Amino acid sequence: MTPHRFRRHAGRFLPVAAVGVLALAGAPSASADEQPTRRQLLADCASGLGKCTFNSPTLGKAYRGRFHKVSENLYNCSSSHATQSVTWRDTVGSSDSLGVSVTTGGKIAGIVDLSVTASYNHSWSTSHSESSSLTMTVQPGEIGWISRAQVMRQVSGTWQTHYDSPKWGHYYWFFRDTVTSPAANGTDGVTNALVVNTRKMTATEKRLCGAEAHRGRAFAR
Question: What is the pTM of this model?
């Protein structure tokens, strides 16, 4: 591995590696098996054990996320088509490239928001909740439900973790990360979407029609 730059610390120059989790300014006896995982470093950022910043944030273009179910099933156990207003609810959160949840109000979310706001002059949302109702029509012997897709956006940057005392042999650790979060409807011209899905009931589901009608989730007339 060839060092691509040098940084000064405590009166001497130390090489910074170009890939993986990077370490700077530590004890010369630190070995490869002492290196932390990115998940461990992020946990220290979240707990406050490490003093962390999210540097050089780069915003990606907005895109529409995957469709996911946001309502209960509506069963049509009758012999004619059924039309009903169905309530849907959706909450979309954030996660990073390791699959770690980035929760609203958490330290990680605050650090990312601070970095994006400083660089782009607008806040970074880590969670979005929405609910409404939609009228759907379900044919006899079918099940209907509502799916929704949220506008999403990614921000990539470099985490810098600073410890007051060397940890894993170093004061500073660096690693690249990408955080994926919900974005405002219409960002970069991309909009949220709702769709009504229907399919034929299975034989087992047809036998459950009476129970679903009792719960108010089926037409049985």
Answer: 0.80
